[in-house]
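Weekly modeling sync, notes
Attendees: AB, CL, MP (scribe)

Item 1: holo prediction request
CL wants a bound-state model with 5-phosphoarabinonic acid before deciding which constructs to order. AB pointed out that an apo prediction alone won't tell us much about the pocket. Agreed to run with the ligand included and paste results into these notes for async review.

Input as submitted:
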Amino acid sequence: MLEMHFGNMLEEVIKEKGLSLVEIEEIRDKTAVAHNQICGRKWDELAFIDLVSQDTSAIKEIAAKIVENSDLFLLLGIGGSAMGPRAILEALSPMHNFRHSPKIFIYDNIDPRSLEAIIEVIDTRKTTVNVVSKSGNTAETVASFMIFWAHMVKALGSDAAKRFIITTNPEGGILRQIVKENDLMSLPIHPSIVGRYSVLSAAGLLLSEIAGINSDELLLGAKDILTKCSNAELWENPAYMFSVLLYLMCVKEKRTVNVMMPYADGLKSLSEWFCQLWAESLGKLGLGITPYPAVGTTDQHSQLQLWMEGPEDKVVIFIRIDDYGSNIRIPVVFDKIEEFKLLSGQCLNDLINAAAKSTELALSNASKPNMTITIPALDAYHVGQLFMFFEISTTFMGFLFGVNPFNQPWIEAGKHNTFGLLGKSGFQKQREDIERMAKDSVCWKL
Ligand code: PA5
């Protein structure tokens, strides 16, 4: 089970830069209100919680077919529709494309050069394209879908339709219309589930099954941590305590930056997924916390200097893994030289954990607040726990701040501006604003 170590956030350990138990107790009223919002299911968007007990048979059936008839699985999506699936893949099937088939590409942009390169390398007869969009309306995803649709139809004729699977809202969106009209395979994302909370829906689970990752274990981990994170008592609920500590550090100590630093390459994408969740859910009404992804030990050699001596505005959150599942030892070579001898025979598992602990110690000794989440192993069960833990924490944090953690007005505004620029009816004002901005822009031609 996931563990959370938060002594380094408290004044007992980091002295006057830490939080007191009185400060934590003082916000009991707020935490009770936030808890009631969640456990009273006051928001339809809390439907992400029910994903832990969903029926996954349709996902598994489709995945089995794709594995049988495809060498390549190409996921087109953006935001939550790409970051969640990527977090699963990189955490649980490292170097997937060198070791397994079908190969998996996740493409979440519309950079023409990248798209051209993908088109050049895919074998249309052996490729399945999974278009993932909760709203079913996002211009980037729809544009890349259109490009691949035309490309596949040109190559395969009417057989192309069989090579698409659309994961989207069952009740609306232009992709749903295309599914109906062309009788395409599709999987639903519940209408109330917001994109960045959709990782444990078909958005993430189809890819998971295709990659050979046990989606039942992901859901079981999520379900087990949900039980712990449903406890009304703050001191018994790790997700609530995680949020309370970061909330107090933000509002009392002006620590408005949260660094998410797993000591695992495989969790780098999960830390980016967390950053999207934290940023897009909380950054509202002048409130929120700036998340910042990092990875250990790499960023010890890039960012740590700033954390130690730069502005006092950060809290560092480490994720450590007890057992990496590998016994790689550094061989005994060049051991006549003292520095080589020191490393000889060391197990990398121990070395990376020692590095994590030494960074934690350096920060704590300098009274820099930090927390550590540990998981026993990097497997589907514990990755499922991390997803649900952070989703509950984010929701709870939104309610502490008093913002809606489920909307994203400025993401929608960006989507509308794009429509405006493309000349869609009803979006004339956005088009005019963009044209005015282009005129007003200051430019040096060098
Ligand atoms: O969390 C969100 O709502 C967004 O980040 C979306 O995931 C992103 O904009 C993509 O939207 P959609 O999945 O509807 O295409």
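Recorded for review: The chain has two domains: 3-39+219-401, 49-213.
Action items: CL to compare against the apo run; MP to circulate these notes.
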